[in-house]
Design a protein that fits this description.
- By secondary structure, the protein is of the alpha/beta class.
- The chain has 2 domains: 109 residues, Enolase-like, N-terminal domain (Enolase-like, domain 1), CATH 3.30.390.10; 203 residues, Enolase-like C-terminal domain (TIM Barrel), CATH 3.20.20.
- It has an 8-stranded parallel β-sheet with strand order 5-6-7-8-9-10-11-12. Strands 1-2-3 form a 3-stranded antiparallel β-sheet, with helices on both faces.
- Helix 2 runs antiparallel to helix 3.
- It is globular, with a radius of gyration of 20 Å.
- 50% of the residues are buried.
């Protein structure tokens, strides 16, 4: 029988993280573990407040989970269907259970999770995210990210030109731009995008509010740079009309309910002619290790969430010079953690 245990946890950030929607210094999380015989599978729910989940909601959800009727962990479809139907929403804690199950399955089969999905193992070039901040702090963050080949810059706070000017004084590296729904007027957004195209920008992520459908469709038609859907793309069901508004989608395990749905989203997006970005929240190396297993499906990688926290209880894939070197350990690639030494705590 599969046994479930979990620990509330708080991720403390190395720096204040600011985006168009606000700022924070920590992120609530819940770490989960599946035990099956002498094998363990690990997962994680990271829950930024803007998405509506919390340690309280995650704990309430986990207390409803009863896996006693499932004798075989390899029956992933049935198990994950059951979990998804316990209650609507709750994507992050569902992702934690999905990740733990896939980690366990990989260990049962003695293969890495990417092989379970029929994917190759590859080195992943990840961007390094820099939030909205003062010119001095932005310059400092850029210098700290010297070895990364691509930077992801947060805009949408009203001082976009000043931020880009600061960035360009410090580096000429390619930039991913994330406005986090911060631009409200489509014509002004297009003007900014046309200017950003001359600043060695690769794409624009979620420039307009996710429900501004007419404006997004207009912008996607006129933009000289690819528009990537993030807040506007949560789960597989959102892909039906995605090509009307976006040229690419940002898949995050915490939004999609985990690896099973993320894999379906990525393969469907590619069939639709959409590019795929793999992104993350502030996360430990557990969730990042899981997302890396789908790296072969991605056009762009933004998996640096574990690098920005001070208290990562896990160790997984090595990151050198902005490249994630995915290992071939069974499951998601975690080195065996000391579960008993991870201290549960809440804010």
């Amino acid at each position: 029988m599969i046994q479930l245990s979990f620990k509330p946890y708080i991720l403390y950030k190395k720096h204040v993280f600011r985006i168009a929607g606000g700022a924070r210094t920590s992120t609530p999380a819940v770490l989960v573990r599946f035990k099956y015989g002498n094998l363990r599978g690990y997962g994680e729910a990271s829950m930024p407040p803007m998405y509506g989940e919390s340690i309280k909601t995650a704990t309430a959800f986990l207390n409803q989970v009863d896996l006693s009727s499932f004798k075989d962990p390899l029956n992933a479809e049935e198990i994950l269907d059951y979990i998804d139907k316990i209650s609507p929403g709750n994507p992050a804690i569902k992702a934690a259970l999905d990740i733990a199950l896939h980690d366990l399955i990989g260990k049962i089969l003695n293969i890495p999770t990417h092989a379970y999905f029929g994917l190759s193992n590859k080195e992943l070039t990840t961007s390094k995210t820099i939030g909205i901040d003062t010119p001095e702090n932005i310059t400092k963050r850029i210098n700290e990210a010297e070895k990364f080949k691509v930077l992801k810059i947060k805009l949408g706070g009203g001082n976009d030109e000043a931020i880009i000017s600061t960035v360009r004084k410090a580096t000429d590296k390619p930039l991913y731009i994330d406005a986090n729904q911060g631009w409200k007027d489509r014509s002004a957004a297009l003007d900014k995008i046309e200017w950003l195209k001359e600043q060695n920008v690769v794409f624009i992520e979620q420039p307009l509010p996710r429900k501004a459908f007419d404006d997004m469709q207009w912008l996607a038609t006129h933009s000289p740079l690819p528009i990537v859907g993030d807040e506007g793309i949560q789960r597989h069901s959102d892909l039906q009309s995605a090509s009307n508004y976006y040229h690419a989608i940002n898949i995050k395990l915490m939004k999609s309910t985990g690896l099973r749905e993320a894999y379906k989203m990525a393969t469907t997006a590619k069939m639709m002619g959409l590019k795929v970005m793999l992104g993350c929240m502030s996360e430990t190396s557990c969730a990042i290790a899981a997302a890396c297993q789908l790296g072969a499906l991605a056009d762009w990688i933004d998996l640096d969430g574990n690098l920005g926290i001070k208290n990562d209880p896990y160790k997984a894939h090595a990151v050198k010079n902005g490249i994630i070197y995915t290992n071939n350990l069974p499951g998601i690639g975690l080195h065996p953690p000391k579960w008993k030494k991870i201290r549960s705590h809440e804010e």
